[in-house]
Specification:
Blueprint: H1 6-23, H2 26-41, H3 50-89, E1 90-94, E2 100-104
Antiparallel strand pairs: 1-2
Helix pairs in contact: 1-2, 1-3
Length: about 120
């Protein structure tokens, strides 16, 4: 059991979570989530004053923004990978009159060796 008060433990946890988010350490984030849930259960036993709550609220808001940005980044990567996959299968081009033409990729996925 830690000698730190519950608000101090929560502050430390929020800082560790922020660091993990900035470093993209998803395993650490998962571990911290378990710790956060355990600490949240202790909130009924050890009340937090409004003065202690203010920095925790700010830390949680800051981390939520990082979560949102991380999720947006993951969605962007997934969309980009989908675009690259589509480009491998076919590519759309436009002629001088603005008519679209689809060029299908060859079905043969073998590597050609050249001397």
């Amino acid at each position: 059991m830690s000698n730190l008060t519950l608000p101090q433990q929560l502050e430390d946890l929020l800082q560790a979570e922020r660091t993990a988010l900035l470093e993209g350490d998803f395993e650490k984030i998962s571990e911290l989530l378990e710790q956060k849930e355990a600490l949240a259960q202790n909130l009924t036993e050890e009340p937090i004053t409004p003065e202690q709550l203010a920095p925790l609220r700010d830390g949680m808001r800051r981390n939520q923004e990082l979560y949102d940005q991380t999720l947006a980044g993951i969605r962007n990567v997934a969309a980009r990978l989908g675009d690259l996959k589509r480009i491998r299968r076919s590519m759309d081009t436009y002629d001088a009159f603005g008519r679209r033409t689809t060029i299908d990729a060859p079905k043969n996925n073998t590597l050609e060796r050249r001397a």
